[in-house]
Amino acid sequence: MDPVDFRRSQRTEIVQLLRTGRMAYALTLGEAFVGNLQELFPFLDQDTLRYLAVAEAAAEQGAFDEALACLRIGLERHRSSGPAPRGMLELSRKIAVILVAAGRAHEGLALLQEIATLSEFELGPSDLQHGLIINSLGTALRHTGDLRSAYRYFRQAAETFEATMGVDSDHFATALLNLSDLSSAVGRPSAGIPAARRAKAIWQRTPPASRLTLVAAEANLGRLLYEVEESAEAAQCFERAADMLAAELGDDHPEVVIHRLNQAIAAADAAEH
Predict the structure, then answer these.
(1) Which residues span the domain enclosing 257?
(2) What is the SS3 assignment for the chain?
(3) How many domains does the chain have?
(4) For this UniProt entry, which residues form the secretion signal (predicted)?
């Protein structure tokens, strides 16, 4: 079986186990997904990582209620076993992230604001985990339409990730991509271009878990370049985004068609000038 199909089948099985109340079996199966999370969350214990892995697998299948139930069980387990601020904060953050993904952005935002205050007090403003919470807060604010506040939090998160994880980290690149993505909306497209270039360069040196992330970075850079009338380079970005996405999803995928159209528009604009 293809590795992608195998992972998908594992996620489907996890959802079925959660729906039938077999949490222990779901957690055992979730061990297969813990590896990537260990790199992203080096400060978390193995037990917390298993709950996160299972919840993430369920959420990727659209089973948001099951994912939330899993995280809340993990949270209760932490509370009953004594103080464990990092595990509790991360489980709470993930609950908020899934609430946002499930269309309940205001609920997620309220929870994130609460745990951001707690994490700043418990861990300090320059801690990696606090940076993750701040980054999620930016995402929630973007979903509620408060783009200027979201931009401010993404910038703060980027500074924290750069200081704690270094300039080649996936966390830092993601925060830069978020910044560049919002730069036009807050009236700063020119400022978004360097951020987009840096994010792209990081992922070219250290490929992300999903190739689609690099596609997003290319397309975002192309959009910003076109906005400031750098049409020739924008066309090249859209072409690379289309080629990478076509390799993953096929030439007929709607997003591939959109990137090809943007490439043609930018190329025509460049030819006129």
Answers:
(1) 210-273
(2) CCHHHHHHHHHHHHHHHHHCCCHHHHHHHHHHHHHHHHHHCCCCCHHHHHHHHHHHHHHHCCCHHHHHHHHHHHHHHHHHCCCCHHHHHHHHHHHHHHHHHCCCHHHHHHHHHHHHHHHHHHHCCCCHHHHHHHHHHHHHHHHHCCHHHHHHHHHHHHHHHHHHHCCCCHHHHHHHHHHHHHHCCCCCHHHHHHHHHHHHHHHHHCCCCCHHHHHHHHHHHHHHHHHCCCHHHHHHHHHHHHHHHHHHHCCCCHHHHHHHHHHHHHHHHHHHC
(3) 1
(4) none
Residues 173-182 pLDDT 10s: 999 999 999 9
Question: If you average pLDDT over residues 108-116, what whole number do you get?
Answer: 93
Say how far apart CA 237 and CA 234 lie, in whole Å: 5
Give yes or no for a contact between 53 and 41, defined as CB atoms under 8 angstroms apart: no
Q: Per the domain annotation, does 265 fall within a domain?
A: yes
Asked, for residue 175, whether it belongs to a domain, the answer is no
Which among 64, 67, 65 is positioned nearest to 53, based on CA atoms? Answer: 67
Measure the N-to-C terminal CA separation of the chain; round to a whole number of Å.
Answer: 51
Considering the domain boundaries, does residue 223 fall inside one? yes
In a domain, 248, yes or no: yes
